[in-house]
TrEMBL record:
Top-level taxon of the source organism: Bacteria
InterPro entries reported in the protein's UniProt record: DUF4391 (IPR025503)
Protein name per Swiss-Prot or TrEMBL: DUF4391 domain-containing protein
Pfam families: DUF4391 (PF14335)
Amino acid sequence: MSDIPHEYTGADLLGLPEKARQQHRVAKKMLAAQFEEQAPADARLLTKAVASAHLVGILRPETIQVPRYQDGERTVVEVPVLEAFLAEKTSASDRTRVAELVHRSMAKPVVLFAHMPDGATALSLALSHVSRTDPTRSTSVIDAHVAVPTGGIEPSALHLDRLDRTDMWALYRDLVRTAAADGRPAGTALRAADAIALRRRLTDLESELITVMRDAKRARNQQQRIDLNVAARTLRTQIGHVRGTLYSADGDHDTA
């Protein structure tokens, strides 16, 4: 009998074949164990902020028919798919920190679906490598991290059969690239790390535009409003450029 609630959708979002699916609860203590000695505050945060966690899938060559990957920096023979419910009253910064800690807690790429207390779900992915200074530790160093609301991702865009199946690392990087662009990456030339950087740049610009527009409405004199409106137009142009580089031309993405 499964102990995973029916609301869990990570395996479906990836289109996992049945033999790649799992249904196991993950003890919070296991996630926190890697940090108890050197970073006890991080261990406490994981224990406090994660209400429950489950392993819902494992991507392996034999379960998804994609070859393993190995080079001088990393070996990728399996990718766990985790789902976690975050506890109430967990701040946005703590949610980001928790996701990063989950990725760091394992010496392998991880797919994490984080369910927020308000019902929203974020897909968290990280480009990472095993520590070069201490390769004996079973943890990862994060090179780049992205968390994307799943509600904005195109239906079936993350299905494994639509991703690069050259090898396990290529598959994971293509998942990162595709998710960072809400399922509509601009093209195959867009690399995973670049997609993450563009996504972060887009988020920053859109946040800045909201602030400028708010300040323009509150401006006390006409010159201030003019200056802020000029700044808003510049930001919209920059946003359009970033979106054009990140997203394909199909579909619409409204400007803030």
